[in-house]
Design goal:
Distance between the termini: 16 Å
Strand content: 15-25%
Bound molecules: beta-D-ribofuranose, calcium ion
């Protein structure tokens, strides 16, 4: 059983990641923290409350996190995820109470409580994780690991940017936080655009049609979340669910080890995640704490998405 803290900026694909996490028998979600990203943290926290209520999991502690990136100006992805962050999905007014702690305190407490048994799964900008590492610089050695949806590494033909020509949104949104996290030595697995945007791994129209066919409460939520995006983009990149799929079953993924540097400034490259593939960088890469997903078993991945996100197990 993988015990995880889910750090999120819900977000359409974050919502799908919730559905996957809570229907995976290999995963126990111990806590959820929210962060400014796709939408502002108030809105994102409201979305997280609605999703936990939808899933009947109000027993999971939920803490609000950073309202702003560390240094950079705020940005959002409302043009993609819609004004509420959940596109056309409509969920009841949430009643669930928030934990009194901040996200950083919750991360610190969970690291103390679970130590190496805890994996932090960050599917939004890394502001909370970076702030927690600043508060306790031993986190990288205390925790089991960090799985992030983030980065774009140029390791596949899909590894180009989505926030600008070369940067992925989560890293671009708070590049200073990402730099701090990557330089902290925390063992990291990165699910980046190299695989999430790879055509074969996206949600196709056929997979979407299969997922909304049952006409259940769950399939109607998926329709509200994804329908317009599937139409607009002829399919859908399963960014955040892929990170949860990795946690549930890492045997579907092939990884390569690289040192990762983050471009925090730059005229055209802010938020770029840089890996050095030159032969003489081999020794640095061999010792690096970061592994990047470069290949996915598309058939097994899509089966997991259809069976768990759509059907709930
Ligand atoms: C990432 O950015 C957000 O818009 C998505 O929720 C995902 O976490 C993809 O670049
Ligand atoms: Ca996200």
């Amino acid at each position: 059983m993988k015990r995880i803290l889910l750090d999120t900026d819900p977000g359409v694909d974050d919502a799908l990641a919730f559905l996957l996490a809570f229907s995976s028998p290999e995963i126990s979600v111990e806590a959820v923290t929210t962060v400014d990203g796709n939408v502002d943290v108030e809105r994102g926290t409201r979305n997280a409350r609605q999703l936990l209520e939808f899933l009947g999991r109000t027993d999971v502690p939920l803490a609000r996190g950073a309202a702003h990136p560390m240094l950079k100006e705020m940005g959002s992805a409302e043009d993609f995820h819609g004004k509420t962050g959940l596109m056309d999905a409509v969920l009841p007014e949430p009643k669930m109470r928030l934990d009194r702690r901040s996200a950083v305190h919750m991360i610190l407490d969970e690291v103390e409580r679970l130590g190496k048994e805890l994996t932090i799964v960050a599917i939004g900008p890394l502001t909370n994780v970076a702030a927690a590492i600043l508060a306790d610089t031993d986190i990288p050695r205390k925790v089991g690991g960090l799985v992030i949806m983030g980065g774009s590494f140029g390791l596949t033909s899909a590894g180009i940017g989505n926030a600008n020509a070369v940067a992925e949104f989560n890293v671009w949104h708070d590049p200073d936080a990402a730099k701090l996290v990557f330089n902290s030595g925390i063992p990291t697995v990165c699910i980046g655009l190299d695989t999430t945007m790879f055509p074969e791994y996206r949600m196709s129209r056929a997979l979407y049609a299969e997922m909304i066919a049952p006409k259940t409460k769950r399939s109607k939520l998926i329709e509200g979340l994804c329908g317009a995006l599937v139409e607009r983009y002829n399919g859908f990149s399963l960014h955040d669910p892929m990170a949860l799929a990795y946690v549930a079953d890492p045997t579907m993924f092939r990884l390569e080890r690289y040192n990762v540097e983050v471009e925090t400034r730059g005229e055209h490259t802010m938020g770029m995640t840089v890996v050095d593939r030159r032969r003489f960088a081999g020794d640095v890469n061999k010792k690096a704490a970061h592994q990047i997903v470069v290949e996915v078993d598309a058939t097994r991945f899509h089966r997991m998405i259809a069976d768990r996100i759509a059907k709930g197990g």
